Amino acid sequence: MPERVLLVGFMASGKSSTGKELASRLGWDFQDFDTVIAARAGKSVSRIFAEDGEGEFRRLESEVAEELLARSDTVVASGGGWPAQPGAWKMVTEDTLSVWLKVSPAVAVRRASGQGSTRPLLHGGDVTERATALLLDREASYRRARYTLDSEQYGPLELAGEIMKLMKDMKLMKEWTN
Ligand code: S3P
After folding, report:
1. Contact 97, 167 (CB under 8 A)
2. 44 secondary structure, DSSP code
3. What is the pLDDT of residue 77?
4. Closest CA to 166 of 112, 101, 87, 118
5. Ligand 1 within 6 A of CB of 34
6. What CA–CA distance (Å, rounded) separates 67 from 87?
7. Which pLDDT does position 113 carry in this prediction?
């Protein structure tokens, strides 16, 4: 069995809702990068971007990632930009099951606006155009996850179920090879 599950993917790909559902089914802890960053900084992610800049946000994010990715029995939802940061994947150890929740830019933008999103990178101008460029830039880093699941066709409940199946398969594989 993996020690932890890491969910990666673009903004509004369902990382938090799937992560919460999965953690509750496993009886594990759920941790979300952005929530921990905001609590530690004492202000929202939007305010960190606006007042301290993206560089400071990425510094905090890397610090939080290192801590959360060392925890056991934890489902971790990363921020959408983290996997593309230099050195990010070096923090992901063999005992981590990483999953990319894949979504198209158009659906991500639609979902984010429906969520009354306060995401600083999805504000102002042609948001779909920006999301498309960002996703193109990040796709290779998301692809480094061990598994990819379609987060457009499936909702959080189904995605959590699929990840449970992947975990069972990993356990069986391990027993079989031991
Ligand atoms: C970001 C995604 C956000 C948050 C920040 C930057 C990004 O997280 O970390 O606004 O660079 O894509 P979510 O993916 O949870 O929205």
Report:
1. yes
2. -
3. 98
4. 101
5. yes
6. 14
7. 85
Hey, which residues does 153 pair with through a beta bridge? none
Write the CB contacts of 5 (distance below 8 Å, at least 6 apart in sequence): 19, 22, 28, 74, 75, 76, 96, 97, 98, 99, 163, 167
Q: 101 CB under 6 A from ligand 1? A: no
- Residue position matching structure tokens 């939007």: 46
CA nearest ligand 1 atom 16, residue: 11
Q: Check pocket membership of 7 for ligand 1, CB cut-off 6 A.
A: no
Residuewise pLDDT in 10s, the chain (178 residues) = 899 999 999 999 999 999 999 999 999 999 999 999 999 999 999 999 999 999 999 999 999 999 999 999 999 999 999 999 999 999 999 999 999 999 999 999 999 888 876 788 988 788 999 999 999 999 999 999 999 999 999 999 999 999 999 999 887 767 767 6
Q: End-to-end alpha-carbon separation of the chain, Å? A: 13
Pick the atom of ligand 1 nearest to 117's CA.
Answer: 16
Nearest CA among 46, 72, 42, 45 for reference residue 61: 45
**Is the C-beta atom of 11 inside 6 A of ligand 1?**
yes
